[in-house]
Amino acid sequence: MYQSFLTLIKENALIAQGDKVLIAVSGGVDSMVLAHLMLKSGFSLGVAHVNYRLRGDDSEEDEALVRDWCHAHEVPFFLHRVDPAIYDARESIQMVARKERYKFFDQLRNKQGFTKVATAHNANDNLETVLLNLTKGTGIHGLTGIAMKGPGLIRPLLFATKEEIYAFARSEAISWREDVSNQKNDYQRNLIRNEVVPLLKKINPALESTLQDTLLRLQGTAQLLEQAVGVKKAVEIEGRWLLNVEWYQGHPDQLVILTELIKPYGFGFADARDLSGAILSGQPGKLFYSGGYEMNLDRGQLYITRRVDTSVEGEMMVPKDEGTVSVGAFNIHLTYFSGNGLPSHDPTTTAFFDPDELTFPLKLRPWKQGDAFYPLGMAGKKKVSDFMIDSKIPVTLKKEVLVLESDGQIAWIVGHRMDNRFKITSKTARMLKLEVLRHA
């Protein structure tokens, strides 16, 4: 195992000359073997141990084992004892523990000058991660396994199976402690480890090594996907992102690329499928929402903007004069143009009106039950509530929807749809551009 360890580090350039490596050591067999291998290799190192104080005396004995090992081998020992009060029912213990762990590592890197943090993830951890991601549903990147290295982070034991690690620990007389909680199926990963993997190994006893070959192929596939995405990614223009989708024909490989293109903005595969349908059916003005972004499909272009918080209480009056006025939490920009030729614009914040059809001052207010208007491009009258349902505006965003009124008539569902009565026509002599932006 020692030679395989050195070969992996060299071939993957995990540790360079002059690196100072901090090893995360829990006291379990994996991390104790990693500490042994790192010490034997002569690297400049230190050990970080986190006592989560969740397992009573066992936690204290884990800490003592790691401290004693460091003392015996003259390795700097760094300890973080977690305050049990930080464990909050609103967040899983595992998530809290992970945050505490990596916050501690970052502090040590900054204060002690460590250039790398080494963790003891192994081939079995990789297998469990892939199976867990596959079960929950994931894209290609979720099937490529645990990365061997990341920014300031290395995992030099990924080549070794659990069986190999145990065998090496026994042959080198390395002490370790077993975490009995790993035998319980309270957590999803434990259930995969204790129940699913043994069944799969009945089909393929060499499951871990087979997975390594599969991961190499999937990692190559992921790189090809990244290249395909890179040439099509959105371009940022004046605070929003423009994504050309004229190339999209609905092929399965294109759907995967589309998913990756919109993923940075908080959209997933289900959104990509809905977007695919809108592109293929040629639905103009179709809107999509994520937690922080809006996507608007318009004539082969996808406009992505940060979602503007338009929630407001009460009513605000908008005067007739051209210029910018501050109305409550908003800046309202009014600009008049001669003619009736519509320039390109962002429909999530901007609309064009025939000012001769408007009665000033306009009123900006939250929508309310019973509101109705005549949606542009549709025949007849429609309740605003029904329009929002048909437009698939999420419930969480409905409370933020504003309407712009002219003499008691809705002229615009702000950011969504104008009223047909106030649209630009061939008879329009001049236009009003009205833009609603919340203060930054």
SS summary, helix count:
12
Please, what is the oligomeric state? single chain
Compute the separation of the termini in Å.
Answer: 57 Å
The CATH class assignment of the largest domain is Alpha Beta
In the CATH classification, which architecture of the largest domain applies?
A: 3-Layer(aba) Sandwich
The total beta strand count reads 22
Rg, nearest Å: 30 Å
User: How much β-strand is present in the residues?
Assistant: 15-25%
Largest sheet: 6 strands, mixed
Structural class: alpha+beta
By CATH, the superfamily of the largest domain comes out as: HUPs
Tally of distinct domains: 3
Q: The CATH topology of the largest domain, please?
A: Rossmann fold
Describe the structure.
There is one protein chain. The chain is built from twelve helices and 22 strands. The chain is of the alpha+beta class and 440 residues long. The model has no long low-confidence stretch (mean pLDDT 89). Strands 3-2-1-4-6-5 form a six-stranded mixed sheet, sandwiched between helices. Strands 7-8-11-10-9 form a five-stranded antiparallel sheet, with helices on one face. α9 crosses α10. It folds into three domains: 219 residues, 3-Layer(aba) Sandwich (Rossmann fold), CATH 3.40.50; 72 residues, no CATH class; 123 residues, 3-Layer(bba) Sandwich (Phenylalanyl-tRNA Synthetase, Chain B, domain 3), CATH 3.50.40.10. It comes from Marinoscillum luteum. Belongs to the tRNA(Ile)-lysidine synthase family.
